[in-house]
Specification:
- It is an enzyme of class 1 (oxidoreductase).
- It comes from Phytohabitans maris.
- Keywords: Oxidoreductase.
- One of its GO terms (molecular function) is oxidoreductase activity.
- The protein is globular.
- The strands form 3 sheets. A 7-stranded antiparallel β-sheet has the order 3-2-6-9-10-5-4.
- It is built from 4 helices and 12 strands.
- The N and C termini lie far apart (about 50 Å).
- It is about 15% helix and about 40% strand.
- The chain has a single domain, classed as Electron Transport, Fmn-binding Protein, Chain A (Pnp Oxidase, Chain A, Roll).
- It is α+β, with helices and mostly antiparallel strands and about 170 residues long.
Length: about 170
Amino acid sequence: MGLLDRVPPLGADAFRALMRRLAATVTVVTVPGSPPVGFTATSFTSVSLRPPLVSFCLDRGSSSWPTVERAAYVGVHLLADGQHEVARTFATSGIDRFAVHGAWRLGPYGVPLLDSPAAWLLCRVTRRVPAGDHAIVLAEPLQGQHDRGGAPLVYHMGGYSAVGPPSQRSAA
């Protein structure tokens, strides 16, 4: 028996405490429906350049999962510094998030598009992969737009902050 065989698995609370140290871009994922669905996610990442693919993760026990499980298209909105309330609104359960937020419009395929994010992508869902109590949703970006400046909103240690542009490095 090796040393690793005697180490107990990391518990959910310890894992959550460790992962709070990971700074993550704050995104809102929106999904067509009646009513539309939207939620705040910090698990968004690019996956592939050829073909272009992105992913986000969602708890399969969440109220948003049944709609995401059937969705053919989604919108992904990378939030900008100053959009803390947008992040909080779409992270709050038990409310009509789109009515509270108010600043959105219907885009192609009926996907709700939020006004004024740092960037947005309209994506076609290509695959859903079960992963523990979550699902990894893979999607192909079809359209997108970004603003020319500003800092992204990030989530770290249970709170929101911004990250500015990289500092200029002096030539050696």
